[in-house]
Amino acid sequence: MASPSSPLRGRCLCGAVAYELDPPIASATHCHCESCRRAHSAAFVTWARVGAAQLRVTGGVEHVARYTSSPGAHRSFCGTCGSQLFMRYDAEPAEVYVTLGSLTTPPDRAPERHVSFEERVAWFPFRDDLPKHRAKSREPAR
Fold this sequence. Notes:
Structural class: mainly beta
Strand order of the largest sheet: 6-7-8-9-4-3-10
Shape: globular
CATH class: Mainly Beta
Order of helices and strands: EEEHEEEEEEE
Strand content: 35-45%
CATH topology: Metal Binding Protein, Guanine Nucleotide Exchange Factor, Chain A
Number of strands: 10
Number of helices: 1
Number of domains: 1
């Protein structure tokens, strides 16, 4: 894990977009919702939630594209290579979600739960001991 005082750094695949975020990460969560799975073409995506003021795009801001994937949910990605980077919700203006996989430095915390687990893909076996929740709630998934 990273030092709690050092900025965490990340970038897109092609390097056109670079960013820093100041620790601490408030939470880290594996999301299994269909929107995240389709946006990332993956079984799930891991998000780090931080305060919006903690995130700085340090290079290539002109390459950051934005897509409203559902009402009030905005995904930001590199317009050159397509790497998914950030997500913001209108209902949470003071927070931003950053893809943990886009970090180039170790995060200061590990993922602590699964959300929208009821939407998980059937072909990936989950054998970890992390709590598995329904939707974005703390309600246990079945």
